[in-house]
Amino acid sequence: MRSRIILRAVLLALAGPSLAAGPGDTIVAARQASMKEMAAAARAIAEMFDGKRAYEPAAFKAAADTLSARAGGLTGEFPQGTLGAPSAARPEIDQARPEFEALARHIGRLADALAIKAGNAPPGITADMRMDGGSLLGKRPGAAEADPARMPAEHLLHLILQDCTSCHSKFRQKQQ
Ligand code: HEC
Questions:
Q1: Predicted confidence (pLDDT) per residue in 92-140, tens digit
Q2: Contact between residue 28 and residue 147 where contact means Cβ atoms under 8 Å apart
Q3: Spatial separation of the C-alpha atoms in residues 151 and 130, rounded to whole Å
Q4: Which residues are CB-neighbours of 9 under 8 A, at least 6 positions away?
Q5: Mutate which of 25, 27, 35, 37 for ligand 1 pocket (most atoms within 8 A of beta carbon)
Q6: Residue 154: pLDDT above 90?
Q7: What is the pLDDT of residues 20-79, one digit of tens each?
Q8: Using N-to-C axis directions, what is the helix angle for 57-72 and 23-49, rounded to 10°?
Q9: Domain at 2-171, CATH homologous superfamily
Q10: How far apart, in whole angstroms, are the C-alpha atoms of residue 101 and residue 171?
Q11: Coil, helix or strand for 89?
Q12: CA-only gyration radius of the chain, Å
């Protein structure tokens, strides 16, 4: 009888909230911070292309490097046991790892290509950095997808933003 009570206490201690609130919390906080950094970087680049913020090659490169570094680390930031409330990461990530990781790899490739372009960015935004009104987007998406290095920077940014949205619509809990 007594040993059963002790055993129960031990099991309770193992399953209790102190464990759940441990390392998982740090991982969740870190990935949310890295998501926020990606959001700030993407916004900075979008605003430069939209003329809402002064274009600076160095700032463009810094933001693109942040996107590339954060996107590249994405897959490792969602380990088992850190999904579901209170995090906004859906538990479904665990059942759809290949799809989740493919999205992460895709955005990583695009962000790497953008960072390389930003590393050679001219002092002012040139026409060839602009989205090419349709010849790449729409008509031959397959060809463009095959080689992000050949896409204009603005087009890369738009594809990156599409990946943010695709992943959030599947794997992020709706905000209240
Ligand atoms: C492969 C999936 C995936 C991609 C790609 C992705 N996100 Fe997320 N994002 C998530 C998930 C899942 C969460 C919820 C994380 C949590 O609460 O633990 C999230 C949360 C966020 C948050 C909220 C962070 C917070 O403070 O709670 C922001 C902002 C965000 N993402 C921005 C972006 C931006 C911008 C991009 C693209 C540049 C992007 N995300 C790409 C999956 C993704």
A1: 999 999 999 999 999 999 999 999 999 999 999 999 999 865 445 545 5
A2: no
A3: 9
A4: none
A5: 35
A6: yes
A7: 456 779 999 999 999 999 999 999 999 999 999 999 999 999 999 999 999 999 999 999
A8: 150
A9: Cytochrome c/b562 (1.20.120.10)
A10: 11
A11: strand
A12: 21
Q: Give the span between the Cα atoms of 107 and 162, in whole angstroms.
A: 9
* Residue 4 one-letter amino acid: R
Distance CA(58)–CA(159), nearest Å, equals 22
Q: Which two tokens stand for residue 176?
A: 């209240």
Q: Any idea where the domains of the chain sit in the sequence?
A: 2-171
Q: Can you give the pLDDT at residue 16?
A: 42
Q: For residue 164, how far is its CA from the centre of ligand 1 (angstroms)?
A: 7
Which residues line ligand 1 at a C-beta cut-off of 6 Å? 28, 31-32, 35-36, 38-39, 42, 74, 87-89, 100, 103-104, 107, 160, 163-164, 167-168, 171-172
pLDDT recorded at residue 15 = 46
